[in-house]
């Protein structure tokens, strides 16, 4: 159980982040969620989180491209919950295009959200963890932190970057009861993946069905999508006392993709 701990999960109004928020709430955490979405849906999720945890849950709408908003989010979490014990850097977007047609603003946006936002959240949250000599940072990377796929230049660059950033920060705080790890899922069927199917079909000149079977599941030896609940359970393990010796790691949850 993580009763009494506070957890901040970026990009948690949808998909993997939402699943992680529900899991950490079920273990007793006070949860701050972040991300965009319909206000009614966000209120419904907050209600579910409060019921699951038996304690408070709040939403902060910081845009992960805006450093001042990120720092306000972390400070608000610290003020409202007394600390920031667990930080899950999960917000991320994708864009699929050959590099010579890749929009410059999309490159900048992906690097800002998928990489630089984690620099900002960690530099603001680590002082709280150092004060308590306990903390858990989990950076949601991707199989694309270890291998590449064509037409995903910004995403693959950002995810390789987060793998290096994770190792660096892990070394800096290793003696202060704080672990910093990355997790690297393979394909999980979330809105992020659903949205890239038509673009991948266009970029490769194949059907959407071929994208699912040959490109997405083609990469995963299990021929199954990874499940959100399995990713969330691994995050919960990294937050546990049993995982205090795991730091600077990059845990693949990819159905064997990167074993090939
Ligand atoms: P998703 O699209 O379902 O959710 C993304 C979340 O990020 C949403 O809550 C959205 O509101 C939020 N977000 C987007 N831009 C934001 C911004 N500027 N500021 C704040 N929040 C923002 O995506 P997902 O598939 O659940 O992906 C979550 C993470 O998992 C990403 O980092 C992604 O790269 C990673 N990942 C996903 C897969 C997959 O197959 N789905 C595989 C490996 C890694």
Automatic annotation (TrEMBL):
PANTHER family: 3-OXOACYL-(ACYL-CARRIER-PROTEIN) REDUCTASE, 3-OXOACYL-[ACYL-CARRIER-PROTEIN] REDUCTASE FABG. Pfam families: adh_short_C2. GO terms for molecular function: 3-hydroxybutyrate dehydrogenase activity. This is 3-hydroxybutyrate dehydrogenase. It comes from Paramylibacter kogurei. Belongs to the short-chain dehydrogenases/reductases (SDR) family. PROSITE patterns: ADH_SHORT. NCBIfam families: PHB_DH, PRK12429.1. One of its GO terms (biological process) is monocarboxylic acid metabolic process.
């Amino acid at each position: 159980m993580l009763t009494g701990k506070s957890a901040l999960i970026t990009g948690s109004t949808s998909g993997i982040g939402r699943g992680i928020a529900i899991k950490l709430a079920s273990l007793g955490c006070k949860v701050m969620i972040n991300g965009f979405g319909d206000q009614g849906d966000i209120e419904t999720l907050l209600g579910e989180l409060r019921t699951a945890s038996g304690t408070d849950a709040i939403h902060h709408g910081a845009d992960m491209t805006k450093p001042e908003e990120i720092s306000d989010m972390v400070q608000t979490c610290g003020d409202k919950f007394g600390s920031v014990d667990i930080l899950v850097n999960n917000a991320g977007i994708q864009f699929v295009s050959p590099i010579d047609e890749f929009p410059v603003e999309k490159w900048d946006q992906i690097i800002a959200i998928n990489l630089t936002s984690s620099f900002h959240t960690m530099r603001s949250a680590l002082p709280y963890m150092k004060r308590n000599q306990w903390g858990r940072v989990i950076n949601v990377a991707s199989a694309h932190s270890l291998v590449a796929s064509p037409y995903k230049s910004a995403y693959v660059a950002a995810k390789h970057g987060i793998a290096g950033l994770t190792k660096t920060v892990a070394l800096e705080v290793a003696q202060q009861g704080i672990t910093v790890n990355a997790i690297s899922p393979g394909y999980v069927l979330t809105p992020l993946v659903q949205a890239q199917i038509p673009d991948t079909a266009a970029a490769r000149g194949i059907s959407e069905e071929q994208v699912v079977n040959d490109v997405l599941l083609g990469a995963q030896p299990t021929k199954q999508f990874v499940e959100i609940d399995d990713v969330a359970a691994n995050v919960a393990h990294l937050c546990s006392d049993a995982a205090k010796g795991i730091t600077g790691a990059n845990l693949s949850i990819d159905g064997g993709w990167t074993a090939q």
